[in-house]
Amino acid sequence: MSQMILRTGMTGRPSVRLNGWPWLLPVLVLLLWFVAAQQRWMPEQILPAPSVVAETAWSLLSGDLLAQWGFSLQHLALGLLLGAIAGTLLGALFGLVPAAAQRVEPLFYALAQIPTLGWIPLFMVLFGIDNGLKLAVIVKTTVVPMTINTQQAVSSVPLALSEAGRVMNFSRWQRLRWLVLPASLPGWFTGLRLALSQAWVSLIVVELLASSEGIGYLMLWGRQLFQLDIVFVTIAVVGFSGMLMEWGGKPRLFAAGVLAAAGSGSSGVETAGQLARAANYPLFCWCCGSSRPSGAGLMGQLFSSPLAVGERFVQGVANGELSAAMLASLR
Prior knowledge:
Blueprint: E1 3-8, E2 14-19, H1 24-38, H2 50-61, H3 65-96, H4 98-112, H5 116-127, H6 131-155, H7 159-167, H8 172-209, H9 215-224, H10 228-248, H11 268-278, H12 280-290, H13 297-302, H14 306-319, H15 321-330
Antiparallel strand pairs: 1-2
């Protein structure tokens, strides 16, 4: 199963590399599964035999499996495309325009800290439980890593390249095309790889919660019918898809890292000024929400005024509900 190769490195010490060991754990798990099914360690309805799961997989291949898998991949591709475009543009804006980063970046990072599952109830109200919900969740999941990695990649262009562009009298467009874009590609691909894995997980979660199609819906359907062989097949498909995405998301051509330029410190006055500028956009949103007429149509019913939210926040702190909920979440 495994092949041992003995090599001598630069230091003269022999090094051992074992080929085939990555497959050892899956084989052991499969053997344990086979023995457990044969010895009836668990009821057959809960732990079907590998042969039963294989027969179910073969029958599903000519049925709904490929169709549901295709639905999931279509939603993933469209949501990933939209999220990657939005995240790339937003990250490039933060990295190339410091003024935009100072004003919008704090609000973006505050919203990014909210888990994707926390947005699902609001997305259900806004987009329903159809395909719009899936796209909204995938786009939100994709935008965050794409924005962060694109911003870091754009702002970490080596200083030597910037100086070379000034010496050659490059225009802003030429610097962006010939210097910034090639140097930021490794970081951009890293963000795309992270976004792909997170978007796939989020899509499966949404299909389990609220969907009428997709591989997650097929998994939920098998669980409701207590046909765990279907559940095992869908788990294998989800894991196999994730493995393919992980393997395909390693562009060795762009594996070289980018040297970050040395940053400079800032004084306390500059820091205070940055904090004041960062608060401009949230204050603007607060004023717009406060000036909204009460009961203004559907949006007035969906979104409470900032004053009402603030009053509810103060009440939650005063009566202890907010602190109790936070302690329950941290346990």
